[in-house]
Amino acid sequence: MPKTLEFIADHLPRVTVDDVVRRFSASIEIRDARAFAAELQAFVHERVEAVALPPSLEMPRVETTEQTLARKAAALRASTRWVAGETDIQRGRAAMLEAFDQPHNLPLADFARLANKSRQQIYKDIDARRLLALNVGPRGQKLPDWQLDPVKQRLTQAVLQGAVEVDNWTLYRALSEPLESLGGRSPVEAVTADSVSEVTTAVLNVLSIH
């Protein structure tokens, strides 16, 4: 039985003996008014239950909390997966190349010379996540020159070690772009010898790593 009719049937006023006497005594002979009232009540209940309501009039089903959350999550889920268009890819590539060519990003050979290290040692430091290197394919690798500063290099290494699943370009932007928590300065600008741990935490928070 539809929920609406079930609700109505269960909440119908009871048929009383007074109702029976007042309504039927003039037209029929009632031997047992109490029994007649009970039978009449059951008859009305059965007739209501037999009615078929259209779906639009049925009482809505009450959702559980889990069902409500699942329904809302489904409404937020796109029917098709987003795929970057050609324009988006080109724009992202252009921004990456522009950052890659910034003067502070040094070719590996130049960085090795200024750091007074061999190229082999720089490669080892990159592989061990002691140095941050940027790569755009066949153009080779470049390293931000701030890593020539011991304090900034400590910060960079700490971020590299704390965010092993994050790609280097994301780490580069997190380290070089202004943060509100650092008074609008970038982490590499704000860090001092005494604040490496604090600034590292600020960068990792931006990356949602806690």
Tell me the strand order in the biggest sheet.
Answer: 1-3-2
**Distance between the ends:** 54 Å
Percent in strands: under 5%
Average pLDDT number: 79
Helix content bin: 40-55%
Shape: rod-shaped
Q: Low-confidence runs (pLDDT<50, min 5 residues)?
A: none
Order of helices and strands: HHHHHEHHEEHHHH
From the alpha carbons, calculate the radius of gyration and give it in angstroms: 38 Å
- Could you say how many structural domains there are in total? 2
Total of DSSP H or I helical runs spanning 4+ residues = 11
Helix/strand class: mainly alpha
Largest sheet: 3 strands, antiparallel
What's the total count of β strands? 3
Report on the structure:
- By secondary structure, the protein is mainly alpha-helical.
- The protein has two domains: 3-73, no CATH class; 87-206, no CATH class.
- Helix content is 55%, strand content 4%.
- Strands 1-3-2 form a three-stranded antiparallel beta sheet.
- A hairpin with a 5-residue loop joins strand 2 and strand 3.
- Helix 1 runs antiparallel to helix 3 and helix 2 (17-24) packs across helix 3 (33-50).
- The model has no long low-confidence stretch (mean pLDDT 79).
- This is Integrase.
What is shown here, in short?
The longest helix is centred in the N-terminal third of the chain and has 18 residues. The protein contains eleven helices and three strands, in the order αααααβααββαααα.
Comma- or semicolon-separated keywords:
210 residues; 3-stranded antiparallel beta sheet; 4% strand; 11 helices; mainly alpha; rod-shaped
